[in-house]
Specification:
141 residues; alpha+beta; Alpha-Beta Plaits; three-stranded antiparallel beta sheet; 5 helices; 43% helix; 13% strand
Length: 141
């Protein structure tokens, strides 16, 4: 009798879709950036019709927006540097970093551990639910 060996299930991808905006100058960098990003594995790209951004789709387990934009800047591409774009980038970088960190964190049952800690603290804390009266005096009326 043969036993089937179960292969570990590959985790579901965490798909992210983002737009990388480029500066107006130098012209033509959007199509070059789309070609560069298209050469990376696990990444889908599509240049925007307006010509100022590239839409990217990726699995967070393989890429992050911060990594992609750093690679673009290293290759000499100029990203949009308006304040709103910088703030949005920072927010996305932070949220993706936290999400990646949480993927490595072990799962914990918060309710169980919380209830146990609460119960132990309640037992040690003097509170009004204890009656120090001896049992024989409690029944006296």
């Amino acid at each position: 009798m043969k036993h089937a060996v179960e292969t570990p299930k590959k985790p579901d991808p965490i798909r992210k879709e983002r737009n990388i905006r480029f500066a107006e100058f130098p012209p033509g960098q959007v199509s070059e950036a789309a070609d560069f990003l298209g050469g990376l594995t696990g990444l889908e790209t599509a240049p925007d019709a307006a010509g100022r951004s590239v839409a990217v789709a990726y699995d967070l387990r393989e890429h992050s927006l911060e990594e992609l934009e750093a690679a673009l800047e290293e290759k000499g591409f100029h990203l949009e540097c308006a304040l709103l774009n910088k703030l949005m980038r920072a927010l996305v970088y932070y949220s993706e970093e936290i999400e990646i960190h949480n993927l490595d964190a072990p799962r914990r049952l918060l309710k169980k551990s919380h209830n146990e800690a609460y119960t132990r603290a309640w037992e040690r804390h003097p509170h009004g639910d204890r009656d120090d009266t001896p049992p024989e005096w409690r029944k006296y009326k």
